[in-house]
């Protein structure tokens, strides 16, 4: 990856963390520039994610910022190496938006993904038919096949590694808005049941009779990034793309909302019974 292809989600994360470490150490951009014997623009470009950083320079900065935790140093060095990683979706070109690429990067770099969906089923739990119906309604025709293939490929995370966990809360209306004939609706419910049996997947249903503050019904995803110390970020989806929240007060607000949701939702066992009942309803029995 050339410098001209930056910033990427990983380079922005690394830059933001280096900027935080520098300010926490009470140092200015010029202090970092003097340590690396470079100009201030280079430090600014690193901290905004517009360029990567060599391992030797990173070690110099971590020493300057007095970062002594070996696990934290190792994680930052790994992230610096991963800035240049070529991901499986890199060859899709303009058919995948920058926001979607950012989301895919966050998802693939996470050990835990927590998602709340009030209107649609979470992407990792959708059948191909459900995906195609969603994308056909909302995307350009020439992008539909690529978007479906990309979402199907994402599902490899569920069985590809023990380091990945998925927790979702599905609002009840989403379970009554599944498009297609009854056979496809039953297929989607059966997929929910099968996926919910995986040891790294937890599904909860939010019942209709639960009253929560209206602000908490917005769809969002919490990502817990791999490594120690754990870094958590929140991703908000909207009609024109997505927004990443990294500031601790913002993430804590959504974490609290998640705790409220999971406490109000049916337990995983009760959720399975609810979905099972929906299968019976769609089967006419």
TrEMBL record:
InterPro entries from the UniProt entry: Cro/C1-type_HTH (IPR001387), DUF5753 (IPR043917), Lambda_DNA-bd_dom_sf (IPR010982)
Domain of life: Bacteria
Transmembrane segments: none
Matching Pfam families: DUF5753, HTH_31
Annotated ranges, domain HTH cro/C1-type: 18-71
Designated name of the protein: Helix-turn-helix domain-containing protein
Taxonomic placement: Bacteria, Bacillati, Actinomycetota, Actinomycetes, Kitasatosporales
